[in-house]
Amino acid sequence: MTFRHGGDFVGLMNKLPYIKGLGCQAVWISPIFQNGFNFYHQYAQIDFTLLDQRMGTLQELRNLVTAAHDLGMYVIVDVVMNHMANEFFFEGHEYTQAPFRFHEEQGLREYLLQVRKKDATLLHDTPAGKQPYQDFYYDNTWVPSAKYNGTLYGQYGEWVTDAGSGTYDLSDFHHNGDLVDYFDPWEINFGKIYGTMDDLRLEHWRVQEKYIAMTKALIESCDVDGYRVDTPMQVPLNFFKAWAPAMRDHAASLGKERFGIFGEFYVTPSRYATMTGRGRDNTMYGQDVYIDGIATLKGGIVYPYYWYIFTAMVYKDSQYADGLVLAYREENKMIDIFDPTTNRQLAYAEYDWKGRDENVSGDNFDMTSETYRYIARLNALRRWYFGDFGRAECDAVSAPNPQIPGILVFERGCTSLTKVLVIASFETVQNKTVRVPVSWVPGLRALARTFQVKGEGLSVKIW
Ligand SMILES: [Ca+2]
To answer: Which residues are the signal sequence here (predicted)?
Structure first.
C-alpha cells in the first residue's frame, strides 16, 4: 500500500489546454526528484539528480515544458533545499524527540548522527564512505574551532550571529536536534523540521555549491522557467544570497532573462521583507536603505491569503465576509522586487468552491461547466484590469452605505479611469439593495448604475 496521490508529466501535459483555458499563465508542479519511500508529498527527496520515476522520464518532462511554452505558459518547479528525507536520527533519540543543542553547552555537544538503515548493503558507496545519500554526506568529526557562517534571522526579522564555536563542520547536515521552537532563530534554521526531515547545512559554502550545481542543471536540462522555494523560513539567508543570484545569472546565460523565484511564507511582513531583500511594504520598494544587501527571492506566497480566500468563498457565511478584504491586503505583500507591476499570485484553482460537490462524481475537466467558465471569466477580468499593480491608488476598500452585514464592497483599479467595483454577497436567500459610494473621478459614468444579480438575492445601486 502506498499513500501517493498520483499524477505524472504526461498527464499534466495533456491537461495544459484545460489549465490555459482557465486563464492560468503558468503551472507550478510539485518536487520532481527521487523521494524516500512512501513520502506521498514529494518533499522528502533523496537525490537531486534523479527524477522520481513515478512522474515520468526526463524526455517527458522536457516535452511538458515545450508544450507549455508552445501555449505561452511557464513551468515552475517546486524545489526543496532545507531538508531531504529521514535517513538519520540523533544519537539516543531514534524514536523520541531530540532537544535542540548548539555548540557545546553544559557538557552537551550537538548530536552524533546515526543512520536509520541497519543493513549497510542499502547504503551508497561515496567518496565519503558508506552513506545514505549519494551526494550529501554526514560526518561525526567534532571541529572545536568551527563557527556557523552568516547571520541568521528569526520570525520578526531579528538576527543573531555566532559567538561560540564547535560543531560537526565537515558534515553536510545539521546535528542540532529537532525543530520545536519556531521563535528561536538558531532552532528555526538548524532544527530538524517535524523531527522527520534531515536538515542540510546550507549556510556552509560546500553544501551551497552542491545545491547550486544541481538546480543549475535542472534549468539547463529541462528549460524550466522558475522555482518555487519550499520552507525558506528554515533556510539561512546567506544560502539565498548565494543561490538566487546564481540561478538568475545562469538562467540569463541561457536566454531566460526573467527567471522567477518565489517562496512560501507564514511570517510577519518584517521577516518576509528580510528574506526577500525588499522593503516591509510597498512604499519602501526600490529604496536601498530598506534592503539588506543582495535581493534574494523575487517574492513570496503569504499563506494567510489563501485562508482568507477560502473562508470567504467556500463557507459563504457572513462571519467570513471580511476574508476577501483581508486577502486583498495580503495580496499587496506579494510584490515582485524587480518588477512590481507584473507579479501577482493567483489563488489556487484547486478550491473549486462553486462546483465542489457536483464534481465529486462528475467530470472534473469539463471546459463547458459553469464553474470552469466562471473562473476563466474572473481570471480574464483580473488580467484586464489589474495588471498595473502595486500602487497606492489600487487599494481602496469601501463598504456599502449604510453598512449591511454579509455584504462586502471594494474597489480595485490602479488609475482613476479604470476602476472595478467588486460586490460580494454572503446572503443568498434574502433580496437586498446596496447603496455604494464610489470614488471615480467626477463626470465619469459607470457602465451600469443598477445591477440585478438574479439568484443571488442582491440588487446594487451606485450613485
Ligand atoms: Ca534548516
So the answer is: none
pTM here?
A: 0.81
Average model confidence (pLDDT) across the chain: 79
CA–centroid distance, 193 to ligand 1, in Å, is 8
Place 441 in a pLDDT band, splitting at 50, 70 and 90.
Answer: low
Domains and CATH numbers, the chain: 9-84+205-361 (3.20.20.80), 85-201 (no CATH), 391-462 (no CATH)
- For residue 51, the CA-to-ligand 1 centroid distance in Å is 23
Report how far ligand 1's centroid is from the alpha carbon of 197 (Å): 9
Interval 418-430: pLDDT, tens = 666 667 666 556 6
Q: How far is the CA of 188 from the centre of ligand 1 (A)?
A: 7
Q: What is the 3-state secondary structure (H, E, C) of the chain?
A: CCCCCCCCHHHHHHHHHHHHHCCCCEEEECCCEEECCCCCCCCCEEEEEEECCCCCCHHHHHHHHHHHHHCCCEEEEEECCCECCCCEEECCCCCCCCCCCCCEECCEECCCEEECCCCHHHCEEECCEEECCCCCCCCCCCECCCCCCCCEECCCCCEECCCCCCECCCCCECCCCECCCCCCHHHHHHCEHHHCCCEECCCCHHHHHHHHHHHHHHHHHHCCCEEEECCHHHCCHHHHHHHHHHHHHHHHHCCCCCCEEEEEECCCHHHHHHHHCCCCCHHHCCCHHHCCCCCCCCEEEEHHHHHHHHHHHHCCCHHHCHHHHHHHHHHCCCCCCCCCCCCCCCCCCCCCCCCCCHHHHCCCCCCCCHHHHHHHHHHHHHHHHHCCCCCHHHCCEECCCCCCCCEEEEEECCCCCCCEEEEEECCCCCCEEEEECCCCCCCCCCCCCEEEECCCCEEEEEC
